[in-house]
Task: inverse folding
């Protein structure tokens, strides 16, 4: 079997893991790693028995695909020559530094008919994969993604750094035809220079309301999704991979009006609560097995290169997420802890 030749461009905090995982695939040849920092590049290359290159141009003619994990501001310039040469690209999220640059990359891929996959890795989280099978009728989607400040990705704000994950997940749950009707957002700058905390409410054309919270100024990490739906309540802890659902018992689902008879028949509130949350509202809890989402994402990329299959996250998906992120940023009322003032935020809008 011929191996798929792949290089990783940028081997910092995340790129090094791409290199590590790809070097262990039987059907992949890790042609090399690219990084302007010689010490960093040589160290990762030595660890995985491959070559170090200073510039991306040096691997242009020697690969079947590349993973781009450089700072977001460099995404467009790094990926452009590969897409022009019809070489598949897996781009770390967000697709680019702005909506206009994201559209340019998408257009390049479309014109050349070249694979452009985007690293919205949470799509491969087993908890999310299971969650999306439980309901097709979301009414409200609530996503929370908070963590301590890592002092990475400081070239972008928390909307493009963290919230973009949940924008993508929520849009995929809503369906491809739903569009944003209104956006209300609030954020804050602490360390800066970009927003470090943001909350946003999106009202979608299909009636779904999406509530998003993102912060990189929280003492503990949380990544969770809750869905209130026509057929119950569903939640997923994306860290522990635990998925919980509360759904009406079949008899109550078939006849919602039964709730009034249940209440009349059990006048004691404590007894009624116990009966409702045992007999009439049924809980299911599943803890999904561990699965490395980054490994699954890279397997998806390699398969798309080898077979021409559609990857799970396309540049179309990524542009849609960037478009919504742009609307969030444009609507952001921003409090600055540095200046003690509030202002409208549109400087990041494309």
Result:
């Amino acid at each position: 079997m011929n191996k798929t030749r792949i290089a990783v461009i940028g081997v910092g905090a995340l790129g090094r893991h791409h290199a590590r995982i790809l070097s262990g695939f039987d059907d992949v040849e890790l042609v090399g790693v690219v990084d302007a920092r010689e010490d960093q590049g040589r160290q990762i290359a030595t660890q995985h028995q491959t070559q170090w290159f200073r510039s991306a141009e040096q691997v242009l003619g020697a690969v079947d695909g590349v993973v781009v994990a450089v700072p977001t501001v460099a995404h467009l310039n790094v990926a452009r020559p590969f897409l022009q040469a019809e070489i598949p690209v897996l781009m770390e999220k967000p697709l680019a530094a702005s909506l206009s640059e994201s559209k340019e990359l998408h257009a390049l891929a479309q014109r050349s008919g070249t694979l452009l996959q985007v690293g919205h890795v949470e799509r491969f989280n087993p908890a999310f994969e299971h969650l999306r099978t439980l309901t097709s009728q979301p009414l409200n989607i609530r996503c929370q993604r908070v963590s301590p400040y890592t002092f990475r990705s400081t070239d972008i704000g928390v909307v493009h750094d963290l919230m973009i994950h949940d924008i993508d997940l929520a849009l995929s749950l809503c369906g491809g035809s739903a569009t944003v009707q209104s956006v209300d957002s609030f954020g804050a700058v602490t360390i800066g220079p970009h927003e470090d905390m943001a909350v946003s409410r999106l009202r979608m054309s299909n009636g779904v309301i999406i509530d998003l919270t993102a912060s990189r100024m929280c003492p503990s990490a949380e990544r969770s999704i809750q869905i209130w739906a026509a057929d119950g309540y569903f939640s997923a802890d994306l860290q522990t991979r635990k998925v919980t659902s509360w759904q009406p018992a079949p008899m109550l689902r078939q006849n919602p009006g039964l709730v009034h008879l249940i209440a009349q028949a059990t006048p004691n509130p404590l007894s009624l609560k116990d009966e409702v949350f045992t007999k009439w509202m049924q809980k299911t809890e599943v803890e999904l097995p561990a699965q490395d989402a980054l490994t699954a994402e890279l397997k998806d990329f390699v398969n798309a290169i080898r077979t021409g299959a559609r990857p799970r996250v396309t540049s179309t998906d990524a542009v849609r997420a960037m478009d919504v992120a742009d609307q969030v940023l444009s609507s952001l009322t921003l409090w600055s802890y540095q200046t003690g003032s509030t202002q409208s935020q549109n400087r990041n809008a494309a």
The chain has a mean pLDDT of 91. The two ends are 45 Å apart (CA to CA). Residues 158-174 form the longest helix (17 residues). The first strand starts at residue 4 and ends at 9.
